[in-house]
Write a structure and sequence with these properties.
The complex is a heterodimer of chains A (504) and B (109).
Chain A: H1 3-28, H2 37-68, H3 79-110, H4 117-140, H5 148-153, H6 165-188, H7 193-211, H8 219-254, H9 258-276, H10 292-303, H11 306-321, H12 329-351, H13 356-362, H14 366-395, H15 408-443, H16 448-455, H17 458-487
Helix pairs in contact in A: 2-3, 2-4, 2-17, 3-4, 3-6, 3-8, 3-14, 4-6, 6-7, 7-8, 8-9, 8-14, 11-12, 12-14, 12-15, 14-15, 15-16, 15-17
Chain B: H1 10-36, H2 40-63, H3 71-96, H4 99-108
Classes of the chains: A mainly alpha (504), B mainly alpha (109).
Transmembrane segments (chain B): 12-33, 45-63, 69-92
Keywords (chain B): Membrane, Transmembrane, Transmembrane helix
Keywords (chain A): Membrane, Transmembrane, Transmembrane helix
């Protein structure tokens, strides 16, 4: 092909892509003129979050099939790769959702334009480019044994934080831009209690990630620091980040007074950090740390559900005393799903297997996966989805979004299918984990043979079939959710009711 | 030394742990509800939930072989889960600064 022909083919391709984008834009009828600079940046984060959510479910389904048919895609797309992409896509889409939510609320909360918006946009493209490249390397290049250079360019080998070292450094750089934007914008505008908690939490969030970059040859030391990132991110800093997002959205959705949400945010931070930090010890059973860590972990794990109990009391108080109105029913429904999911996933499913007397048997079995599925979905995915609905409403010009609207069945069914699907997977994995703990660990003493006995037991295999079935239900819910996000409020002409925020 | 759960106590350990959190939440919910609606039956149900929680804690203590300083966990749960909803309720009232509204609703009934 000559260079002229190549140029014309490229031009035709570019024109087609542009036409497709224009058609898509006219179909979804979203008006970016409704959005401020910070909100435009936020919706970029939300868009990538939804794509990664889709990838998470697809790769999860592939891995679920491989549990039942181990030969499926063998040496083409192996189980270890599917599982890794499934988990990392989940971690990264949560982060994209959180960052988008913070950028969304930043200008409103500070009363100022985002200071480093250009840097924020640049950081978004750098992060997205890096995530794409890392996933492509996982899928197509990650073959064969590793060398020292693999740590830098292929895979760092730490479960859940497998990003190679160059991407680790890139992530820290992007987080520094994010941190600068948050602090500088609040400094230029006005500080609030929410702003203070957010700033301190971002310091802890970035600081903990650095703990995951130590490389040690002693596996106990390595696991010790690895757990700092995994446990403290999820059970301390992410929970507080979600508290910040929740506090702001309660003011916007329900008109709750600032004084109330800020007071509860401080209490939540105290309870979360008070119980969550030392609850870290409940992970330390198998890694050779001193026994006092298990006692400390057990004690504080027993107290970890207290913030969730506080939430129950406060919710009853609010719903009993005040008549709530909201202008965005899907967002409120997802926030309610968050409250239930967080309580069951983190509270009930968490405490069932954290005490070392039982964790000896359950650690790292499908029991952990059962807890993980419900806790991550309940505590984090739900609140991000609530924010997607808040964003899409504003993007469409603050249109009416209520339970009785046209095509409201879509968000209701998406809500039902996603929650039922995740709950179904949780129960199926609980049964599989029970079998595994019982047969592999308790009866056969954690031997290699015990592992295979448990994997081949009919109860385990049946549970894994049911996990796949409920995974497909979850996938159906996700497809419906994406369809709904693209279309909800498109033909709506009524404006949403403005919820006045109570003073004080 | 930590003594692991016996094989026969597997299910009861999982079940009693889950029941502690569920009964704790039910007690908190019913306690808060009894403050809004002054119906003595709701309060009785709240205390019944708390009794379930105490039984679950006792069963977990037995099944998970708590002894020595491990018993502190049982005491922390029995005492902490009783007083937490009461304390949180008072915080709710203070933060909302809305006591008259609740009293009035209570008196209407």
């Amino acid at each position: 092909m000559s260079s002229n022909e190549a140029k014309s083919v490229t031009l035709i391709f570019q024109n087609r892509v542009c036409t497709l984008i224009q058609r898509f834009q006219s179909w979804v009828r979203l008006d970016s003129g409704n959005l401020s600079g910070g909100q435009q940046l936020a919706v970029k984060y939300f868009s990538v979050a939804v794509i990664l959510f889709f990838a998470q479910i697809v790769f999860g389904l592939l891995a679920a099939i491989q549990f039942i048919a181990p030969g499926f895609l063998y040496e083409i797309l192996d189980f270890n790769v599917n599982r890794m992409v499934h988990i990392n896509a989940m971690v990264v889409w949560m982060l994209y959702g959180f960052m988008g939510s913070i950028y969304w609320l930043l200008e409103d909360e500070s009363g100022s334009d985002i200071v480093g918006l250009k840097w924020g946009n640049l950081a978004f493209w750098v992060l997205t480019g890096a995530v794409t490249l890392v996933v492509l390397v996982y899928l197509f290049i990650q073959i064969g044994s590793g060398t020292d250079s693999s740590l830098w360019f292929i895979n760092e080998g730490r479960e859940y934080i497998e990003a190679p070292r160059w991407a680790d450094i890139g992530i820290v750089a992007v987080m520094l831009v994010f941190f600068y934007n948050v602090v500088a914008t609040f400094s230029k505008g006005k500080w609030s209690g929410i702003a203070g908690v957010l700033t301190l939490d971002l310091v802890a969030l970035a600081g903990l990630y650095l703990a995951g970059m130590f490389y040690m040859t002693n596996i106990t030391h390595d696991q010790y620091w690895w757990w700092w990132v995994i446990h403290l991110w999820v059970e301390a800093t992410w929970e507080v980040l979600v508290g910040v997002i929740m506090a702001w959205s309660l003011m916007k959705l329900l008109g709750v007074r600032r004084k109330i949400v800020q007071t509860w945010l401080y209490i939540e931070v105290a309870l979360m950090f008070g119980s969550g930090i030392l609850g870290l010890g409940h992970h330390y059973f198998w890694i050779g740390t001193p026994e006092y860590w298990l006692t400390i972990g057990g004690f504080f794990s027993a107290l970890e559900p207290i913030p969730l109990v506080a939430m129950v009391v406060h919710a009853v108080y609010d719903s009993g005393v005040h008549a709530f109105k909201t202008g965005n029913h899907p967002a409120l429904a997802w926030i309610i799903a968050h409250a239930f999911g967080n309580f069951f996933g983190a509270g009930v499913w968490g405490f069932m297997h954290t005490l070392p007397q039982i964790n000896l048997y359950t650690h790292g079995t499908q029991w952990s996966a059962s807890h993980g599925h419900l806790a991550f979905f309940g505590a984090y995915a739900t609140i991000n989805i609530a924010f997607f609905y808040l964003a899409i409403q504003h993007w469409r010009g603050d249109v009416w979004m209520a339970g009785g609207s046209r095509n409201a069945w879509r968000w209701k069914w998406a809500l039902g299918l996603l929650n039922a699907g995740v709950m179904g997977m949780t129960i199926a994995l609980l049964i599989a984990g029970y079998e595994q703990s019982f047969i592999e660990r308790a009866m056969e003493g954690s031997t290699w043979g015990g592992y295979f006995s448990a994997q081949n037991h009919p109860s385990f295999q049946n549970a894994m079939v049911w996990r796949l079935v409920w995974g497909l239900v979850t996938f159906a819910g996700l497809v419906l959710l994406i369809w709904d996000l693209l279309t909800i409020g498109k033909e709506e002409t009524r404006k949403a009711e403005v919820i006045a925020q109570a003073e004080g | 030394m930590i003594e692991p759960v016996a094989l026969k106590d597997f299910f009861i350990t999982f079940f009693s742990s889950a029941l502690i959190i569920m009964a704790g939440a039910a007690y908190a919910l019913l306690f808060a509800w009894s403050k809004i609606h002054t119906n003595p039956r709701i309060k009785q149900c709240a205390y019944l939930s708390y009794i379930v929680l105490v039984i679950a804690v006792a069963e977990l203590t037995r099944a998970a072989n708590f002894s020595g300083y491990w018993l502190l966990i049982s005491f922390a749960m029995v005492i902490g889960y009783f007083f937490a909803p009461i304390g949180i309720w008072h915080l709710c009232v203070k933060t909302h600064d809305d006591r008259t509204t609740i009293t009035k609703r209570g008196e209407d009934r």
